[in-house]
Specification:
The chain is mainly α. 66% of the residues lie in helices and 0% in strands. The protein contains 10 helices and no strands.
Amino acid sequence: MDTTMATKFEYRHRMLLRALIIGAAFLTYLFDRDDIVWRFVKGSPAHRELERALFFVATLFVGAGAGICTWACAGFAREAEADTESQAGEGSYRYLRYSQHAGDLLFAIGLGSLAPLSGFIILVAGEAIRVFRLIGRPDAFSHAQKLKPEETSVPWLRQSDRFDSRSTAAIPQWSRAFGQEAAKWGLFLTMVVFTITLRDRLAEVLAGASVLVSTVLALRHLSHWPSYRE
């Protein structure tokens, strides 16, 4: 067994593992009360300006990560029209998949600015390991090509789910994509507000609200969103 490749459990429970990594990162506040930005600027005479500037950069990372992931999720639905027998179709799928992973990494770097130094390391290193192990695993597109249409667990690769050239599925499904990535956009809004105000309590309230709203939206779209599982 290749230890550099994600297991089936890692592949099927990606959201759970990401949540555990984020949780472990922020639990470091139990023994370290300073986030990584404040740790390095608190001794500076212009610490407020430096803090705001660094959190602005972190907010850009979070926004870029959320945008890339949303675009990739919207594109997966568009790929329902792809010819599953063509190399071009597989290449397009891989491009979207790798874009999703790149967005996750950018998001983790930006979000890590809110955690202590040890939490930042846990979050970024954990996400990097998780992503590179997923990249090493054969994707659902290639696996599904080896199966009969009715055997694949990837809904949009089943013959019964194929669409003709007039299908609206050829249009990126932005509403579903935003529902899937609602947590990232909620945390992006949290970062924007926190960068402006630098008020910890307000950021905590907004972060909690974004997680709650994103959970509701994710459950709403769960029954309709394609399951990219092997």
